[in-house]
Structure formats: C-alpha cells, structure tokens
Amino acid sequence: MKKVVVVGSLNMDLVMEVERMPKVGETIKGNKMSYFIGGKGSNQAVAASRLEDNVKIIGCVGKDTFGEKILKHLKEDGVNVESVREDNCAFTGLATIFKTPEDNSIVVIPGANDFCDIDLIKTYEDVIKDADVVITQLEIPMETVEYALKIAKKHGVKTILNPAPVKTLSKEIINNVDFITPNETEFEIICGQSFNNGEELEESMVKWQEDNSCNLIVTRGKHGSSYVKDGKVITIDAIEVKVVDTTGAGDTFNGAFAHCIANEFKIEEAVRFAGIAASLSVRKLGAQSGMPTLKEVNEYFK
Ligand code: RIB
What we know:
Strand content: 15-25%
Low-confidence stretches: none
Shape: globular
Structural class: alpha/beta
Number of strands: 14
Oligomer: single chain
CATH class: Alpha Beta
Helix content: 25-40%
Number of domains: 1
CATH architecture: 3-Layer(aba) Sandwich
Bound molecules: alpha-D-ribofuranose
Order of helices and strands: EEEHEHEEEEHHEHEHEHHEEEHHH
Number of helices: 11
Mean pLDDT: 96
C-alpha cells in the first residue's frame, strides 16, 4: 500500500437542493437539506483511501459535534486522522452548498481550518517524510501550504498542489510542487490571462509549462482533463455518466491522481485514471458518497 498524506481542510457540508440559484435580495423555497462530510482535504483523503492507499490527513477541526462526526466518518472510510488537531479556538469548517439540478455554488466558512498552522506541520514532519506523495489545497492558510510543500521537498517526497480555492501563487510555492492541478477558471488566475475558447486555453497551457518546472494538469469538467507533453496539449476525454451532483468531482480527481503518482503511474495513465474516478464520483449526492473503489475505476481503466 502506498502512503498518501493530505494536508488540508475538513468541513461539514450543508447541501441545500434548490431548483435554481436565488437572485440578489431574493428568498426562494428549497427542496431538501442534507449534511455531508466535505472539505477539499477530507474529500481528497477519502478518494485516495477508496483506491486502497494508506492515507493520513493533517488538518484541524473544532472540538464540536461536526468535528467528531467528520473524524468518525473518515476513520470508517480508512483514513488515519491521528494528525488532525481538535482545536478549542474555533468551530469546525462549514460549507453551505446550493445545488441546482445543473450546478452548484459553495460558501465556505473556514473555522478551524484557519488554525491549521506551521506548528502542526512541524509536529507531523515525520508523517510527511514517510509519505510517497503529499497533496494539499488552498482551504488552509497559504503559509502552511508553503511550509508543508517545502518540508515534503526537503525529504524528497513528491508533491501535488490543487490550487483551490484559487489564489495568486508565489514562485516559491510553484518551485516546491511537482504537479499542479487547477481547473480552467483557476488556471486563468494562475497564469493571469482569461480565455475565450479552448485554443486560447491550450496556448496558455503550453506557454505556462515552458516557463515552469512543475507539471500542469488542467481539469475541464465534462471536457475531461489536459496536460502538456513535448510542447503539445493532450486532452483525455471524460467518460459519460448520469450526473447527480458534481460537488467533490475535482477532489476525486485529485485524490485519485495522488494515488497514481504514489503508485508511479505515467502521467498519461494518471490523468486517464483520475478522470475516470472523477466521472464516476458524480453519480450520487454529496462530495464523498459517489467516490469509486479501485475495482470500480479499474473496470473502466482496463
Ligand atoms: O470541493 C468541494 C468541497 O469544497 C466541499 O466538500 C466543500 O466543503 C468545499 O470545501
């Protein structure tokens, strides 16, 4: 079993099912509200764990009922939560998700995720040192992300940054990352350009890859995922499935991609495998409910 370490957020997701998004100043009646375990870090950890990796998560929850529920659920899903700190300073992170039949919008209140600090990474440096791959996102403080990546690199551990929710990235961060996995919108911010069509996106990807040493993979929802090889963009199409909820599809891609990098897949295989996992994940409501097992992904991959 390969070792995947996730440094990232843990949230309780409050999912409101609505027919359409409310307009500014409008009150609308929703259909249903459900609680799901979420947070990009916790989602990516579960995605990798379902693929039979040995997964540890470093992060923070509050000392409250949501925190307890998240830790219990992650343990049941095979994720080691010994390096999650239960913090007195804040409540567990919360995400309110408005889900329409077509799409979703998310508001995150970070709570304890904002207290995931450099000290916590120092405490668990050995966990990072022992990993085959470290994956992180941007729902915890930037200095923590920066430090975790630096420590991973110091110990020769492969690193993946999923730059979500997107922020401007320093050269130092990028230099400590082996693989960066923005979606199209996030990539616009990272490269400082907007695109009117796929061709413009691909030109920017080639240019960005020429200027940076970390491998760029752009996830493109139902259009699949793209990476650059020998100065050309290669796109792996998504597989077609009946979509119930796309929340967490990006996280499934990232958790599965971490599994592939830990297991030394070639990049083309890793992007295809992670794309299949992401497509399969959208068939159920809730970020983690539809995340596939290794057997399910392999049925399509092979
Ligand atoms: O990527 C989906 C996740 O974003 C949700 O689970 C929510 O918690 C937010 O962090």
